[in-house]
Amino acid sequence: MNLRWLGIALSCIFSWNIMKASVENDALWQVRATDLHAPYASAPMASGCIGILPDKEPFRIGQVVLNHVFDAAAPGVVSRVMKGINPFGIQMKIDGMIIDTTCIKAWEQTVDMRQAVHRTTFEAGRKVQVVSELRALRNLPYAGLVSVQVKALTDVVLEIRNSMNVPDDYAADTVRYRELDADGTRLYLLEAEAVSARKYRQVAAASTFMFDGAEHWKPSFDKATGELLFMLSLKKGETLSFSLVGSICSSQDFTDPYNEAERQVVYAVHEGKAQLIQAHERLWNTLWQSDIRIEGDDDAQRLVRFALFNLYASCRAGSRLSIPPMGLSSQGYNGHIFWDTELWMYPPMLLLQPDMARSMLDYRADRKEPARRKAMAYGYKGTMYPWESDDTGEEATPTFALTGAFEHHITADVGIACWNYYCVTRDSVWLKREGFPLLKKIAEFWVSRSVCNADGSYSIVGVTGADEYANGVTDNAFTNASASLVLDYASRAGWVCGEQVPSVWGKVSRGLRILQFEDGVTREHATYQGETIKQADVNLLAYPLGKITDVRQQQKDLAYYAERIDQRDGPMMSYAVFCVQYARMGNAAKAYEMFCRCYQPNWRPPFGVLSETPSSNNPYFMTGAGGLLQAVLNGFCGLQVTEEGIIQLPSVLPLHWKKVTVTGVGVEKKVYVSSKGAYLCIGKYITVPDGMPGCVAIRSCAGLRYRG
Fold first, then answer.
1. Is the CB of residue 425 less than 8 Å from the CB of residue 361?
2. Which are the catalytic amino acids?
3. Which pTM does this prediction carry?
């Protein structure tokens, strides 16, 4: 056979095997719960605009969280992201018996990540079998769809009710029933509107039932309870299928949220259930073109894919919004935006979903004027981003927390994210129009924030670094290193844009002090004496900053600081960073140990949602998901953003992992493979000696790039 055709054939086999494995391994796309009485941490379903939190109780939705819609938590208290009106208040009765956890069996819940659906199945009173599915619609992102199928095991009478749940932190609310004729379609709507407690925002919701098949039941309105309901009888063996569609809109996003919520429900009814689900799944299939596939460890595969699923669900391309630490799962940390975005969640998004990463940057660009005002208010030049940011872009940290006054490295983190976006996308138009102007103001801040010492070096005085247990310190390692790095990036961006760059940027960058102990260990700050630290600080200089490149120095710093981290209340990302460094050093056993430590104490049953610390129960912690993904993408797979774009560095896998395949990387949607042994792409074999890392990057199956 002609070698060229052999190569094409082998390439097709390679591609087919990937697609076949993806289709066949449905279990690797699902996380399950089967014990109704076991500990239970809810798995949120989100669309990037709303988050819906289902419960173990049949049909119960614990809360709806609105993305970036804020009100003050109390008079004189900082802003807090709002719960939405919950239009998903379904309750079912069978022959007058309320269906709840006391009367069901064969209960099971599944989160299908591929299709982004939360499915509950159970049997009630030996009378009915029920399947209920919840989707936070990707195609209608202010709406959710609950689809229910009831199969009668005997003759039964069903009563289905739906209510509006208006949270207590609203000042006033109105619930009403409305019948509407929309171009020949009769709709029966349950609607609510409310004003937030401090009257900053108006929120509205609307919902209606939809029925499958030819028959349609006219719901009625119970004025006494404010519920929409319908009743019917089912003979043994008959099946009823119906859906509830609900939309939640706010004045943050719409001038007229009441009519918009109603309008979206009308639209959904005209689209129909099948069309809504098809569009929802089509958009998720597009997102899943960028995926992480682990061979040899099914548990790790589900864990990592679940982290990716939750990050994807928390953001939308083009939204100009970022992701708070708890995503859209709760009001944790008031829904504010921290460094969690730029340092932890943004890097995997930049690799796999650059358009979403752009939205996270847009969030900062839209708030550069409040950041400029903050710099001026504290006596500095340029742009100074708040430690906690809300919709206004002003400082939203509670006043008792010193982080709001001292944790300034956030401004460098934003700038580093800007430069990395350019490195991945090579979007010089964006760099000239938005990136460099922002980097310029960030550089001006750090020059004004630095103090020149008598020996010509520079210090940054009075800060809180990544280790938030040390407030008001001098020459914090992470703060100085990130400031130095962003000054360099600002200079490079200026050169790319053909702009004159002040020489003082380079002078300050080179002069910022990184201190050491006498034995050569990098010192966290000028007065650090080995105290317990909240999380990695010094160790971030090796990865992700790349300021410490000497392997022996990295090892020395790892040995010193790894056991000084707070084992009870420290967040999980430190061990993800350690995993990256050990994997790149070629220490597979130690890298895998750190990989396990970065999630196992924080894993919450039954689905494996992540909490912030071993001692907390505040899932889902999106920041930790970002760290976990970096452990795999940047550690085991060796991906690295450089000025030349994305490259793949030598690395190792855990001993029992066979291969990691990362698809849809960067704007060109490349495929990268990390493995040991032989590699195949377009008929080419590469053999790697036993025990050595193998790194293969496949450029759209049109060429081969090898490192390591």
1. no
2. 468, 612
3. 0.92
